Amino acid sequence: MNRRAAKPEQDAQPKIVLNPSVSLPALLDKGAVPDRTFRQFLYDMSVVGAHLESARQYLAERLGVTAPQYNIMMIIARSGNDAAIRVSDVADRLSVTGAFVTNEVKKLVKANLVVKRANPDDGRAVLLSLSETGLERVKAIEPDLLMVNDRLFGTLSRDNFQQLAATVGSLVGVFGQTVAVLKALSATSGHDERLAPAAAKETRIKKGG
User: Fold this and answer.
1) How many Å apart are CA 189 and CA 208, to the nearest integer?
2) In angstroms, rounded to a whole number, what is the distance separating the alpha carbons of residues 155 and 18?
3) Using CA atoms, how far apart are residues 137 and 5, in angstroms rounded to an integer?
4) Cα–Cα distance between 37 and 21 in angstroms, integer?
5) Residue 203 — pLDDT band, cuts 50, 70, 90?
6) What percentage of the chain exceeds 70 in pLDDT?
7) b/e burial code for range 14-32 (CB count within 10 A of at least 16 → b)
8) d(C-alpha 175, C-alpha 96), whole Å
């Protein structure tokens, strides 16, 4: 008796339809997938950020410090004002707390790379400058710094760079505010569900929306 082989029943694959991941009109494309460009932009930003961090880590290792300490030393080195700068000004440039800068500066002072001295205009504050050793190390890595930055940004025109610098600078504040809200939500998750709408409202207010 012939038996016809039964065709395996193929499982029906449900079609996945997701809502756009952003609703702001300025960030949406026309077409079936309106957030395609936005999502690719986020992926690209993540990759660029990771590569930039790796490049800074390379320079920090050449300097013999950590990446955060490298940033602090470079800001001090290029501060003007007789190469002296306040802790608060360093913190503002890096968008970190003064306590963080103070803690890292203590390590740099101990390593004889940074010098602290009293601020003649404010007895409660100190001014930071590079030690002779710190300055020698910074000067020694200048060829590496030039090579890294030229390679990273060599494809940009002057207009491209000016626009990029302005755009990224405009995002720093709102990115920080958003992360602060997310940390608050994470810390209170499961304890007060009412915080979510309140946090969202706070974000809109800070953005001027």
Assistant:
1) 26
2) 36
3) 78
4) 11
5) very low
6) 83
7) eeeeeeeeeeeeeebeeee
8) 13
